[in-house]
Automatic annotation (TrEMBL):
Primary location class: membrane
Membrane-spanning segments: 177-203
MF terms in GO: CDP-diacylglycerol-inositol 3-phosphatidyltransferase activity
GO biological process: phosphatidylinositol biosynthetic process
Superkingdom of source: Eukaryota
Name by which UniProt lists this protein: CDP-diacylglycerol-inositol 3-phosphatidyltransferase
Pfam families linked: CDP-OH_P_transf
Classification of source organism: Eukaryota, Fungi, Dikarya, Ascomycota, Pezizomycotina
Residues forming coiled coils: none
Length: 303
């Protein structure tokens, strides 16, 4: 074989190898690159759930809540405004989740935990404002946390990891079904429940009926440092107990807080009833699971 013939065969083999590497069919490298750039591959890209719109709203609620806690001891108007905006955003994050198709388990847990902690912080302040009724506020905190935790846990363990705690079968509880099924009912109950506690908070700054020490007079023949006295010498620190009493005394008019509290009281009572139903139904659902597991275990042992 001559050198020319060998060169021709080598060129032919090289051309054939290139064609095998880049065929014109579906398995070509070019088509593979186009496939990798397809919308399906782009959908497989990792999303940052932490930066979803409803979760960003949840973070802003936390910031507003912390700010309201900062102003809570001495500035009732500022605190009430910040706290109310945080509560109203609770409805906006759900709308954003549905609008942007960004409903996530993390977002649902973030929303529920924020609600529970926000209410608990306000009730803690009310416990300090009215120590005589502290046991009632402590009971409300415990009931709220326990009912939602048990309901969430029962839903996840018995209904499945992808089951929402707001999807209630009417056969299990008609009260919870109507409570969670209607967004309007859920929003009104949660909003007026928070409004009731905001009203009580404002009354702690304005109502001598509930807090007689706010307007307790001091006789002329009494020493200036008596309980209930608003002596300037007590207020060297703006965060002292005496400064708190001074900030509360005659700070705001009590008529509007009384109206807010009276209007929202029935809804608050209904919300606590729902919490009781929720904890009872969750307990029964968990017990059903325990009995089913024990029955299955006995069957395995007999076999």
């Amino acid at each position: 074989m001559t050198a020319k013939t060998r060169r021709q065969k080598a060129a032919l083999a090289s051309q054939t190898g290139e064609n095998d590497t880049l065929p014109s069919g579906n398995g070509s490298v070019k088509n593979q690159l186009e496939k990798d750039a397809s919308p399906v591959a782009q959908d497989d890209m990792k999303e940052n759930v932490f930066l979803f719109a409803p979760n960003l709203i949840g973070y802003s609620r936390i910031v507003l809540t912390v700010a309201s806690l900062y102003y809570m001891p001495l500035h009732p108007r500022t605190c009430s405004l910040l706290y109310s905006v945080s509560c109203l955003l609770d409805a906006l994050d759900g709308y954003a989740a549905r609008y942007f198709n960004q409903s996530t388990t993390f977002g649902a847990i973030l929303d529920m935990v924020t609600d529970r902690c926000t209410t608990a912080c306000l009730l803690v302040f009310l416990s300090s404002a009215w120590p005589r009724w502290a046991i009632i506020f402590q009971s409300l905190i415990s009931l709220d946390l326990a009912s939602h935790y048990m309901h969430m846990y029962a839903t996840l363990s018995m209904g499945g990891a992808n089951q929402s705690h707001k999807k209630i079968d009417s056969s299990r509880s008609r009260v919870l079904y109507y409570y969670y099924h209607s967004r309007v009912v859920l929003f009104v109950c949660c909003a007026l429940n928070e409004l009731f506690f905001i009203g009580l908070y404002l009354l702690s700054f304005s109502s001598p009926t509930l807090s007689p020490s706010l307007l307790e007079p001091v006789a002329d023949d009494q020493p200036s440092l008596q309980p209930g006295t608003l002596a300037n010498s007590l207020f060297t620190s703006p965060w002292s107990a005496g400064a708190l009493e001074l900030a509360r005394a005659n700070k705001i008019d009590s008529r509007i807080p009384w109206v807010i509290t009276a209007i929202s009281a029935p809804v608050m009572a209904f919300k606590q009833f729902v919490n009781v139903v929720q904890i009872v139904k969750a307990s029964k659902w968990l017990v059903e699971g325990d009995l089913a597991n024990r029955k299955a275990l006995r069957s395995v042992k007999k076999a």
